[in-house]
Amino acid sequence: MLKTSLTKLKLKILTDFIFVIDDNLDFLESLVLLLEENHFEVKSAQSGRKALQVLNKISQIPDLIISDIKMPIMNGYKLFAEISKNPRLNEIPFIFLSALSDNKEIRIGKRLGIDDYLTKPVKEELLLAAIKGKLNRKKIIGKINHKIAANLAKFDLPEHALVSDNRKEEIWILEFIWDDTLGPTLVKYHPMKSKSKDLISKLGLQCFSAITAIYGPFKSIKEPQDLLITLENVNKRAYLLFDSLSDQSTRTNKKAFMLGVIASEITYFESLEIKQLLKNLSIKIKLDKPHDLKVIWEDVIGILTKPVQ
Length: 309
Known about the structure:
5-stranded parallel sheet, elongated, 40% helix
């Protein structure tokens, strides 16, 4: 059963939809009741397989999934992996609840990109705080997508501006840096085709501007921040990583920069591999070491064009 606190952390969200999965019926019913008392819409399942069947048919996409890890037939990790392959479902955030606490299980989860674990029995206030954090991030990403779409709508973008018969030519890597006078400025990009430079610049500019508008200036970045977003106007996905480097010539002694990959499709698992590439590139930029975007682009191509397992 859940450990409850005398002072309940009530969330003021009335319409968020949470899907919960656990094979322990007593725990599941307790969790559903807790969430409903905190004004969430809730749907539940007692196995990963049943949850996947429901999610594949459901008309309303959940705002969050809370799942147990150790379940028969299809455990929480397998459910997470299946959902992450589905473009319709792969943006749903996950929180895992489990009685498991050994390092082996945590390492498996880390390889899948999972970083939100709560160990049973979980305190109510910790669970609700984790839910609030996940939902807030999801809403921020939604605002960013909306703002980018609105900004790009102002431009006269050709309907098939970024379409090519060669899939590799529809994948771009770009590097932007914040200039105190000019704002977001395109430094490098690849492939360097003249016909796409203007559009790539506009896309990157709008991504950078939209995110700074939502989050505020990146003056206090201590660790790289990343997002996987949708560019609906051009039917593309973008994986973006933001960081900052030391620069004594600026008022804040820091300069923000953005690295990004734009492609027709980037799955969650592909974004994890791209993230590592861009984090390594970010380190080189901060150390002022030479870097060749073409080399990184070729690595990205390898990730995005490898056969589906």
